[in-house]
Amino acid sequence: MSFFVVDIALPVPLLRTFDYLPVDGDSQENYQPGQRVRADFGRQLLTGIVIGTRNTTDVPRDKLKPLLARLDDQPLLSAHDLRLARWMADYYHHSLGDVLEHWIPTMLRRGAALSEADEPGWLRLADPGRPVDLKGSKQTALWQLFAQQPYIAHKQLTGRGYSLAQCRRLAELELIQEDTRLPLPELPSSVRAPLPLNSEQQTALDKISACLGRFQAALLEGVTGSGKTEVYLQLIDQVIERGQQALVLVPEIGLTPQTVRRFQERFNVPVALLHSGLNDRERLQGWRQAREGHARILIGTRSAVFTPLPDLGLIILDEEHDGSFKQQDGLRYSARDFALVRAHQAGVPVLLGSATPCLETLHNALTGKYLHLKLTRRAGKARPPGMKLHSILHQPLTHGFAEPVLSAMHQHLSRGKQVLVFLNRRGFAPLLACKQCGWMAECRRCDARLTLHQYPPHLHCHHCDHQQPVPRSCPECHSPGIEAIGQGTERIEEHLGTLFPSTKIKRVDRDTVRTKQAFDELFDEIHTGDPCILVGTQMLAKGHHFPDVTLVVILDSDAGLFSADFRGMEHSAQLIKQVAGRAGRAEDPGDVWIQTLYADHPQLNLLIDDGYHALALSMLRERLDQQLPPYSYMAMLRSESEDKAQAQRFLEQARHLMQQWLRQYGKKDAPLTLLGPFPAIMERRNGRFRYQLQIFCPHRQALHQALDAAVKQLEGIKGFSKVRWHLDVDPLDTL
Ligand code: ADP
Ligand code: ZN
Ligand code: ZN
Q1: Measured between alpha carbons, how far is 37 from 614 in angstroms, rounded to an integer?
Q2: Which residue minimizes the CA distance to atom 25 of ligand 1?
Q3: What's the pLDDT at 128?
Q4: Residue 469 preceded by cis peptide, ω within 30
Q5: Are 449 and 443 within 8 A, CB to CB?
Q6: Which of 112, 277, 422, 585 has the fewest C-beta atoms lying within 10 Å of its C-beta?
Q7: Ligand 1 centre distance from Cα of residue 378 (Å)
Q8: What are the φ/ψ torsions at residue 274 (nearest 5 degrees)?
Q9: How many Å apart are CA 619 and CA 358, to the nearest integer?
Q10: Whose CA is nearest to atom 9 of ligand 1?
Q11: CA–CA distance from 214 to each of 211, 559, 589 (Å)?
Q12: Cα four-point dihedral sign 365, 368, 371, 375
């Protein structure tokens, strides 16, 4: 047998892949790209993915170790998957092994067999061709059922009125037998009919459906409630009709039972779900349902974008502007950008939907790179909400509310409607301070103040999770006069109790709604339609339908207006629009009141008067002037260390290396701009000092060549043992 090594990708931070000797007795043909293997790496046992085999290696023979096991006979990942993973590793300058971890559910990463997703309790046809002479119509009917559907679960049969005794009889006749099987999602008992589309919806549907079967990116820009989901559903119908699968990606918080139900009720095909609320086994089941083609629709959050789908025909990304599509640690990928690459490689369309598209996407639509489809009206009978800015500058407030806002609330409640109060700050108050000496409760590990919580009473750092008891007197001057300043959702809930003593008040934030179940129960309660006031954070803002909310009050729109981040205004505007979109979804038109200290803020006024699109166009002009994304490409090198000087020096070194490289290989027509290093806005977090180096370039390729060289050099850099660093390509924020 000739000598060969197996090249494998391992989940370690190093960029390279690794050569191993085969498992004893295996021949070269036993190894195919995409199989899993077990390998001894340093002192760890790891699961790796075979990239290929080779007959030569640079590793000295006595250093080569044999693989411990080959876990798959057939590749788990296809050549197609491996190509996509390679693209991602290159684009994010990240370890291929780490990237491949995202393709595989946890159980498989730990070495489980695919069959561990199977469950007992199934019956299947034993011998389809056999002539039978069955007694009784019930048995014949049961037998015919198996002829139509070769696998049936026990519980499905009892659900249809068959008894286990009847099954046993068929089993004795050796017609059917017990089996284990991958469970499949249940089909609805009846399927809801599609709605007749309005003309804008019809145009959008026609244009994108003309692209089925080839790559095309499209933006569906539709105001909240304009019927984007209905367009998705009818498009998916066509994809199913063509015998293909559809992948639907939604933000973490948008995957509500309502959304899922809407999809499940419409299609007579299995719909699989993948989200963070599932356990490992359920994830493996969903993954297999999709990969083996049983599920024809897969709905999932960010990481579902990696799921293998043999008959992929369409990708939909709803609320494409949502920040949860970008992973913020480890492999900092954007599921939106990757969905585009994936659709391109599969030769299928990708539809990005939003009422408030991000500027990158909008830019691509405006320049014609993406199809630009628009829904400008609310679907059905709903009318758009009326938005009002209310200046609270020099105005007396009652418990945080302006008088006209309170009277609007009374009006809506007396009409039997619901009111939503939005405040994106949980806890009781953002600050606890001493009136005597000016002391403020601050986090010892962060450059941040501690938030006062009342239920139960404690001080909490929202950045590092540090918690401590509330002092009774000032720790500095021992005066008892310490005071909660400002308001969070807990305090507003308390105030509302005083202001509206006979109205039910429901607080919705991460402290009241800790589990998915609690979330679902709360929404069921809201959907009874009883008058109430909802007070909450952005948990309330996204993707939900509250048909009985007719008034939305935004208590404090100002936090994002003066952000140090260049995307601050964009994100604020998106959030305001999302919250406002909750009002008046049914036939009652809604009102939106925004309390602000800056009632003449030009961008806020543009948003209120002319809408998000108009504001987006003006923000795009500013980005063009400043050569910021989408008019340039950006990456950010971040370092952090308990040793402040080291964190800074590391990036100085990185900058120096990059400049050296640029002098030699840089392109004049694609100059790189290096900004920094400077401290992050919150310089110290969780005991570590954080620095950043921002890198801009008008050309994507030139940027990536420089990044590639930089990362390779930084991997080998010595003397920074206390520094942690990472590269963030297309960072979502610079905070
Ligand atoms: P979006 O996804 O844009 O927020 P939805 O698809 O959820 O909007 O639609 C908002 C509401 O309008 C839903 O209650 C939906 O059933 C209804 N709707 C959508 N399209 C139509 C239509 N063509 N005719 C009547 N009602 C519609
Ligand atoms: Zn004091
Ligand atoms: Zn902290």
Answers
A1: 54
A2: 380
A3: 58
A4: no
A5: yes
A6: 277
A7: 8
A8: -135, 115
A9: 11
A10: 227
A11: 6, 43, 40
A12: positive
